[in-house]
TrEMBL record:
Membrane-traversing stretches: 54-76, 96-117, 137-164
Family: Belongs to the DESIGUAL family.
Keyword Membrane: yes
GO CC terms in record: endomembrane system
Segment forming the signal sequence: none
Domain of life: Eukaryota
Record's subcellular location: Endomembrane system
Alphabetized UniProt keyword annotations: Membrane, Signal, Transmembrane, Transmembrane helix
Membrane topology label: Multi-pass membrane protein
Full protein name: Uncharacterized protein LOC111436715
Coiled-coil residue spans: none
Organism from which the protein derives: Cucurbita moschata
Amino acid sequence: MVVSVKIMSLTVATLGVISFIFGVVAENKKLASGTPIPSKGIVIYQYPADPTVALGYLSLAFLLASSIAGYFSLFYPYQRKSVPRGAFFKSTSFSIFFNIALFTIGLAITLLVWPTVTEQIHLTRNIHHNLDIACPTAMTSLLGGGAFLSLDSSLFWLVALMLVENAREDYFDEIEENRDSAEALTNSA
């Protein structure tokens, strides 16, 4: 199977867009509150069917898939020509975009996991002994922010992949120049 930069780019972008869509839909479907049902010394909060938790986890899964594909696409030996990783990190632009991609992944994971797990906890632990608390739900806008950051991280992986292509060309040009210089020296001797 021939893996090309174009296929890897499409894979990273598609997975990132799917993660973004799931995150935005999860934010839009998130419940504002539940219905309190008072009882003897407790309050049970009943929530209608809510796809937020499932959509949040799907968004997280596609973010992770996009990130893994993005990471491995950078160091994959295209056309069976391997390049040492150090050659990529000689480029300041690549190093910057690589680190920004890693940072946005971490932030996106945080913003997707936090409200998703919080919402799951509120849905499963819906019996409270304090009669004065409001019907809890996860914080608003975190899933949407995580969705946008997951899209951003896939875009940063794509920029890093473009910079890797330049670094690969520079590396092979440098090897060719060194080979030509060595041949010229051996022929003149």
